Amino acid sequence: MKKLRDVYQQIQPNQLTVNQEVTEENRYGQGSDRLPWFWRLNNGGDLQEDPWMDEFYRVNWLKAKARWERWEEELNLVQHEMGWTVGWFRHKIGEWEKRNQEAAKLGHQAYAQRQVLL
Question: Core-most of 30, 34, 72, 101, by most CB within 10 Å?
Answer without folding.
Answer: 30
